Amino acid sequence: MRIVKIFRRMEATCFLWKPVVLPTFTKGLLDRVSYRQCNLLSRSHVGSRYYRIQVFCSNSSSTSSKDEILDQRFLQLLKQNATRKAYDLVLSHVSSGEQLEESFRRKFIKKLSSAGRADLGYELYRAFFSTSESCDPTLLLSIWKTVDRQQHSPLVERIIEELEGWLNSSLKEESPSASEEDGKYSVGVQVCVQLCSYYIQQGNVARSLSYVYRLQSMKPWVNTSTVNKLLSIYSKAKCLQGLYATIEMKKRCNIASDSDTNTLLAGAFVKEIHFVTGAVSMETLPKPLPEVAFVGKSNVGKSSLLNLLVNNYSIAYTSKTPGKTQQLNYFIVNRSQEDKKFFLVDLPGYGYARVSKEMRDKWVDLIRDYLEHRKCLKVLFHLIDASQGLSQEDRYFIEFLLTSNVLDRYHAVLTKMDKCTKSKDVIVKSIQSELVALGFPFEVVIIPTSVKQRWGSEDLWLALKPLLLDKKSSSRPSA
Ligand SMILES: Nc1nc2c(ncn2[C@@H]2O[C@H](COP(=O)(O)OP(=O)(O)OP(=O)(O)O)[C@@H](O)[C@H]2O)c(=O)[nH]1
Ligand SMILES: [Mg+2]
């Protein structure tokens, strides 16, 4: 017989005997051949041509093949649901002094856990990895995620104790640099998120939030997906404090939103929203509820911003033509939740609108009346078109506001930021100084937004924090 080809692989050296010419696809197959596949192939033929492979010698130590055989038997037992036997098999292999590669150890632990025996997975973990000083948080997390919450709470408690110990002993609290032990801190983020989730399910809000705050010290490793996971956890738990802690952490860590972030945010705060009425006079306003109003010149983007806030782009009608909204349009949010319901009010615009002067004057009177007398108005969003800056009408309106009693509820919002060429900070600073020059007695917080690019809603929700979290202290202390 003639040796046709020799394949050198990590696991073994293979000699190929006959036929002299190989079909092309067989060659491809042999390029990817592994030690185990050699054995299989040596007993088979491909197409009409027979060939033989002989494994002449194994390049790695004999433990590798033993590990593979153990692996096959282990998987077979798992298939038969004999999880305990599978566990015993691995344990006796190791207790008899055999070596076992780390990749197999990890695999056995994970497989046992995901086969419904997190307890056995954890026992193996203890036997293989854990000494009193060391901890493998990735493995512990993977075991934890497979635990049936009802049945294994002592196990979860043990895992948590180890993970919290690891967080406290291995990760610095004061901001580490991005290059520092990357893997360790990425796992640290995962551990924190899992702990946030665990403690909120246990009803321990303070402990849960402490891990959101902890994430701030891992800034380089926190990303949009971390934020989205937290929003989803606190939304499910209906925990407004958790949602706000997450938004604040996101802002401090300067993490961008994606479309999921907006959907999750709106979904967390708005369980339902309905149109209630279009009021044309003070007499036709609905019965009082805490209220959030959107005011600004015609076409500035009030209705669009309301839609962005609730992530529902068909609830308030928008139009390119100024003067679209002609009444005080009332939308009720969360109407079936007594302690959480509130109104969003979309006002007609002031300034230029494609309607008669008489009509415009009527709107201005109504807006003034509304702002001066509607006691349940808790938050006023005053919209300014960032692409045009403050208009003369805006200045008149601000002069009126400065003499009114609604300043303590005032928030300036910049719209259409996507149309601006200057940087966000430059625009915000310039409007801020204009407002101070107009006579604002405090530095106004300005919220930049873009409905077109769908960003900015988290700052609007932050502005509603006093209203939603503590309805009694919803006004800013007067300056
Ligand atoms: N590029 C851009 N266009 C926007 C933005 N927000 C709103 N618009 C557009 O501006 C136009 C006016 O938007 P509306 O939301 O109807 O404005 P409004 O203030 O409610 O207008 P009135 O009801 O007429 O007072 C629409 O064509 C919107 O699509 C934004 O952030 N960026
Ligand atoms: Mg409108």
UniProtKB/TrEMBL annotation:
Domain EngB-type G: 288-470
Keyword Membrane set for record: no
Top-level taxon in the UniProt lineage: Eukaryota
PROSITE patterns found in the cross-reference section: G_ENGB
GO BP of this protein: cell division
Keyword annotations of the record: Cell cycle, Cell division, GTP-binding, Magnesium, Metal-binding, Nucleotide-binding, Septation
Claim: Oxidoreductase is one of the keywords in the record: no
CDD domains documented for this protein: YihA_EngB
GO molecular function, one term: GTP binding
The protein's required cofactors: Mg(2+)
Similarity annotation: Belongs to the TRAFAC class TrmE-Era-EngA-EngB-Septin-like GTPase superfamily. EngB GTPase family.
Protein name, entry field: EngB-type G domain-containing protein
Natural source organism: Galdieria yellowstonensis
